[in-house]
Amino acid sequence: MGGFFGTVSKASCVTDLFYGTDYNSHLGTKRGGLATYDAEEGMFARSIHNLESTYFRTKFEDELDKFKGNVGIGIISDTDPQPIIINSHLGRFAIVTVAKIVNLEEIEAELLSKNMHFAELSSGNTNQTELISLLIIQGKTFVEGIENVYRRVKGSCSMLLLSEDGSIIAARDKWGRTPIVIGRKEGAYAATSESSSFPNLDYEIDRYLGPGEIVRMTADGVEQLRKPEEKMQICSFLWVYYGFPTSCYEGRNVEEVRFTSGLKMGQSDDSEVDCACGIPDSGVGMALGYAEGKGVPYHRAISKYTPTWPRSFTPSKQEMRSLVAKMKLIPNRAMLEGKRLLFCDDSIVRGTQLRDNVKVLYEYGAKEVHIRIACPPLIYACPFVGFTASKSPLELITRRIIAELEGDADKNLEKYATTGSPEYEKMVSIIAERFGLTTLKFNTLETLIESIGLPKCKVCTHCFDGSSCF
């Protein structure tokens, strides 16, 4: 997915920029980048590093002295190297994006036909941030150019632009699929994907940008350049999986939403269990809520070895995903043996992690293994944000089972997405049987939306029910 951070201050911005960007590290693992502008020298400084085998801080800490100035932007990218720096009729600017461009090849071909060129190739492919910048410079102003992006891009695109006038332009995706939060403190403003960047840097949340809203930030304040759209489709998976527990989107805290969904599930679940446990990290909040709602203790029967293992969705190769899923979680035999255990997890995508976890739980003496999932089954691939490394819907375990049952992975999807339908119940029972679970239950879409606390029409639930569109 990716996350960014930008700040403009009356003093040096480098420390805030470094740590603020690092606080987005849970959103991406491919590239990290920083750019600053020094008004005295009239120069940009930029650095980009590969993060696939290390962490952001280890790559950037030793070179912070090269960055100078009161304004800067940073990115943890799950796509291409960023930031890029452009010189155009709009002036010089650096840009970072959190984007997924479904129609990239179509736009690329059109721009090439107009004698434009791409210089920032990434692994032989067009860098989508460069493509976005070329769409921007077709406008007579930054706002006009960003609106061109909104019109042209299918998928999603939120961005930060660092201008040589010493300001930052923040523009949220037109449908609001990915967030931008504005923070403020004395003498400084910041914009970020994750509000968890703010507390330790002494920022307070000032506002949440609306869908398609564009603002210009200076050290003195925030100026609105484009009003927000009324319609919104913020990604529900921000609360289910992506978000750090202390982050808030649209005023709704991630941990609170996870806790509430678990609480509601625990209150309605009739299974008899000895304790509730969370699959780290994003299953923990739900499990704490489930334990309270069910009236059973919370036990930490599995711990995540955090120093070295990244999230299991990151590697593109199935063999590596399987290895990561196995190695990063360590079971605790003393808390497992002879117990009827209920585990909460955020989702089931391919089943890689679930398969390995359940096998080990029984090997370590669990009497029963019940699984509760924070969201409905994932039936549809996401065309809007960079959700997984999946290249095909058939990587979803649900679609593989539908293909087995129907002879066609695309047949009767609506029925399989409907909680309680015969097709839904059959699919869930097969998943449970395939992994040796005592019981398996998914949260309902209604409970998820209630927990998020926003109207259904403002939340994208496409991966569950196929309801959203461009």
UniProtKB/TrEMBL annotation:
Enzyme type, top EC level: transferase
Domain Glutamine amidotransferase type-2: 1-220
Keywords assigned by UniProt, alphabetized: Glutamine amidotransferase, Glycosyltransferase, Iron, Iron-sulfur, Magnesium, Metal-binding, Purine biosynthesis, Transferase
InterPro entries the record matches: GATase_2_dom, Ntn_hydrolases_N, PRTase-like, PRTase_dom, PurF
Swiss-Prot/TrEMBL catalytic activity: 5-phospho-beta-D-ribosylamine + L-glutamate + diphosphate = 5-phospho-alpha-D-ribose 1-diphosphate + L-glutamine + H2O
Gene Ontology MF annotations: amidophosphoribosyltransferase activity; iron-sulfur cluster binding; metal ion binding
Source taxon at top rank: Bacteria
Residues engaged in binding [4Fe-4S] cluster: C235, C382, C460, C463
Metabolic or biological pathway, per its Swiss-Prot or TrEMBL entry: Purine metabolism; IMP biosynthesis via de novo pathway; N(1)-(5-phospho-D-ribosyl)glycinamide from 5-phospho-alpha-D-ribose 1-diphosphate: step 1/2
GO biological process: 'de novo' IMP biosynthetic process; purine nucleobase biosynthetic process
Positions bound to Mg(2+): S282, D345, D346
Gene3D superfamilies to which the protein is assigned, alphabetical: 3.40.50.2020, Glutamine Phosphoribosylpyrophosphate, subunit 1, domain 1 (3.60.20.10)
Cofactor note: Binds 1 [4Fe-4S] cluster per subunit. Binds 1 Mg(2+) ion per subunit.
Protein name (database record): Amidophosphoribosyltransferase
Organism annotation: Bacteroides intestinalis
